[in-house]
C-alpha cells in the first residue's frame, strides 16, 4: 500500500494480517501464510479517518482519508535481493566517484551489479556472494546537480533469478563548511517552497501529469529545493 490515510487493518480470506498507521509511508505485508494456492483469495482492508497518529500529522492542510497512492500485489523468489541501499560519493577533488552498495540477501547466491550511463553504456561492474557492502569505483563520472541532474542506473540481479532491481544514481558530494552548504565543492543558495501532496481535483491522489506540472512550475521560478508535506511521522 503506497499511502493510506490515516490507518488501516488488513485481512486475507477472513484472517487478520496486520495494521498500519502512517499516512505517507508504504505499508507492506507478507501474505504467503494466508493464501490458498489454486483458489480465489479474498483481500479486504478497512480504512479509518482518525487514529492516535493523526495528532502527529496535524499540519496545515486539508484533512482527507482513503487510499492516496497505488497498491501492488507481487510475488518474489525465495532466494532474492531482500533490500539494497546505494550511496554515491566523490573523492576530495570532486573528480572520481564511488558507489557503496549495501545488500541484504535472502538465501545464498551470487549477485551481479552493473552500472549503466544515460546512453545505455556499461561503465562499471561488480559481484557479491553474500550480504554486506560492495564498493564500485567509477572514473570521472558525470556529476549530478540541480542544474545538470545526470543520472546513472545501477542494475542488481541474483544469478538464477529473472528479477532485475534498477536503482537511479547521481554522483554528487554534499558538505557543510562553515556556514555554507557545498554541492560538488560549490556553494549553493537554497531557494525553495513548501509543497503539499494535494490535487485540486483528486485530493490526496496526485496524477503523474500534476507532479510534472509542479516540477515545471518550480523550475520556471528557479527553485532548487522543496519540502514535501505532510512529512512521514
TrEMBL record:
Any Pfam family hit: Glyco_hydro_2
Record EC number: 3.2.1.23
MF annotations from Gene Ontology: beta-galactosidase activity
Domain called Glycoside hydrolase family 2 immunoglobulin-like beta-sandwich: residue spans: 80-172
Class in the EC hierarchy, top level: hydrolase
All copies of domain Glycoside hydrolase family 2 catalytic, residue ranges: 174-225
Keyword Hydrolase: yes
InterPro entries linked: Bact_Beta-galactosidase, Beta-gal/glucu_dom_sf, Galactose-bd-like_sf, GH, Glyco_hydro_2, Glyco_hydro_2_cat, Glyco_hydro_2_N, Ig-like_fold
GO BP: lactose catabolic process
Domain Glycosyl hydrolases family 2 sugar binding, residue spans: 1-75
GO cellular component labels: beta-galactosidase complex
Catalytic activities: Hydrolysis of terminal non-reducing beta-D-galactose residues in beta-D-galactosides
Keywords assigned by UniProt, alphabetized: Glycosidase, Hydrolase
Keyword Hydrolase set for record: yes
Family of the protein in this entry: Belongs to the glycosyl hydrolase 2 family.
Protein name: beta-galactosidase
Organism field: human gut metagenome
